[in-house]
Specification:
single chain, about 160 residues, mainly alpha, Ferritin, about 0% strand, Ferritin-like domain-containing protein, Ferritin-like
């Protein structure tokens, strides 16, 4: 389907982020297994549960508008997850890998923050008020996760990695 209208663009962007979230549910367990710091492991596990709720929220957006998502694969998320996988393979388990995993996770969060911000703007323009509210809830969670990762990096992981 070609994107010709703002609603087409919204459907495309929502389909893309739905794919991204599903890919994240496969990437986070691998990151949790690779991490050594218990707080980081727990952060990844908690975000996995949160991501599952975000997928349910996307389903609620679809239902509230009565649209169908396109079957696409988010190439950007695929690349970000591949980068994280390469780091897991190339960096010895320990503080440096934990710092790299935080960075990889923040790249994912920043992609999601941009995606949800765009979706909210489109939803508001299209008059999809309920969808915009649902998407805002997810955006708030993504920003909170990014902040938690920043605190973990600055207060613990980067210092541990620097000492190696």
């Amino acid at each position: 389907m070609a994107v010709k209208t703002l609603q087409d663009l919204f459907i495309h962007a929502l389909s893309d982020v739905a794919s991204a979230e599903k890919q994240i549910t496969k990437g986070l367990p691998k990151m949790a297994r690779a991490a050594t710091d218990p707080k980081l492991v727990e952060a990844f596990k908690a975000h996995l549960e949160e991501t599952r709720g975000q997928i349910e929220r996307i389903d609620a957006v679809v239902e509230s508008i009565g649209l169908r998502l396109k079957r696409i694969k988010c190439a950007a998320m695929e690349g970000l997850i591949e980068e994280a996988s390469e780091e897991i393979e190339e960096i010895e388990k320990g503080p440096v890998l934990d710092a790299a995993l935080i960075g990889a996770a923040q790249k994912v969060e920043h992609y999601e923050i941009a995606s949800y911000g765009t979706l909210i703007a489109l939803a508001k323009q299209l008059g999809f008020t309920e969808a915009a509210d649902l998407l805002q809830a997810t955006l708030d969670e993504e920003k909170a996760t990014d902040s938690k990762l920043t605190v973990l990096a600055l207060q613990e992981e980067n210092a541990k990695a620097a000492a190696v």
